Amino acid sequence: MHFSKEAWDVFDRIVNVLFFLAGALIAFFMLAVCWDVIARSLLGQPLRWVVEFSEYGLLFITFLGTAWVLRSEGHVSIDIALAHLNSSKRALLIAIMSLVGAVVCAFLVYWGGYVSIDHLQRGLYQATTMEVPDFPLFMIIPIGSLLLLIQFLRRMHDNLLIWKKAQSRVSK
Q: 118-126: long-range contacts (C-beta < 8 A, 24 or more apart)?
């Protein structure tokens, strides 16, 4: 995966903006839930949309922020195992794990897109109080998964370069 520095800069800016949006959603829903509690307790008028949209917000927050978290190496890893490997073996293992992550993301991109488009064509919606259409809710899954897929491939590529560099030092 050999993109120019400018292409990676654009990708990183997109990932940063989406991560900022995820943070803004967290702040918004925190305030909305607090206001809902106040409105329910003091005014006897709960905000009917808060709980439902907070649930949808969790889905969006997850898929908007996941590529940024991977880029920052913030995802869960088994550090105890990695710490006992030399840099060459660690880089190879991270590359392999990144490939597995990319395959899973490719599956989510394909099926998430397929289901989203199917629900759009059939005009399906959530059978809830707000009756939100399924398409925008489901479409965040392939979008976020595509960004995560690209980030996994980038991580795999970077670690393969580290591994190859270490291998060339050993063979000299």
A: 126/52
Contact 57, 25 (CB under 8 A): yes
CA distance 88 to 163: 5
Residue 167 corresponds to which tokens in the numbers above?
């291998």
What three-state secondary structure class fits 22? helix
Largest CA distance in the chain: 77
**Which residue carries 């120019």 as its tokens?**
4
**123 torsion bin: left (phi>0), alpha (psi -120 to 50), beta (else):** left
Length of the chain: 172
Reply yes or no on whether the pLDDT at 1 is more than 60: no
- pLDDT by residue (tens digit) across 68-85? 999 999 877 777 888 888
The C-alpha angle with vertex 6 and arms to 2 and 10, in degrees rounded to 5, equals 100
Domain hosting residue 135, numbered range: 5-171
* Residue 39 DSSP symbol: I
**Domain count for the chain:** 1
